[in-house]
Description:
This protein is mainly alpha-helical. The chain has two domains: 1-91, RNA polymerase sigma factor, region 2, helix turn helix motif (Rna Polymerase Sigma Factor, Chain: A), CATH 1.10.1740.10; 100-168, Arc Repressor Mutant, subunit A (Orthogonal Bundle), CATH 1.10.10. Helices cover 74% and strands 0% of the residues. The chain is built from eight helices and no strands. Helix 3 (39-55) packs across helix 4 (66-85), helix 4 (66-85) crosses helix 7 and helix 6 (119-130) crosses helix 8. It is globular, with a radius of gyration of 17 Å. The relative contact order is 0.10. Residues 87-99 have low confidence and may be disordered.
Amino acid sequence: MDFLLIKKVKNGDDQAGEQLIRKHYSSIYQYCFLHLRDRDLAEDMTQETFTRYFESLEMYTEYGKLKNYLYRIAGNIIKNYYKKKKELPMEEMDEAPGSDMRDAEVRMDIEQAVNRLPDELREITILFFFQELKQKDIAELLDIKLSLVKYRIGRAKKLLSEYLEVRE
């Protein structure tokens, strides 16, 4: 369905563009938020992702899934942000409305464990566990072999279990 929407957007159909944004906005926002831990900044980065996508639309050729392409754009925007900042995010997650103290503690523990992972494992962890992308899609998105994705997911699980002191 994305293919048809993209074709309509290229032909000047603004409603199709809005449909594309509505369809993928929450996934890209969540991806940005998991990296940045700041709602306003995640919102800005998400908007920047779609702005860059539409600016490069004429050059875009559909080789794979649009969502993977959007993740790649968002990932590049986030990497550039941190290159400018030269620091890692260590902010606490905002509490969701209605969360009790135990849920907040669990989220904080998970966030701290994920932040302790090496960069290449953290990225795969976010894409696989939080964004629920398939391993094959992660391999395409990161331009690495599927076997490496599987290895990194296994390694991330092991490290997270150690960090969270979970016994399998």
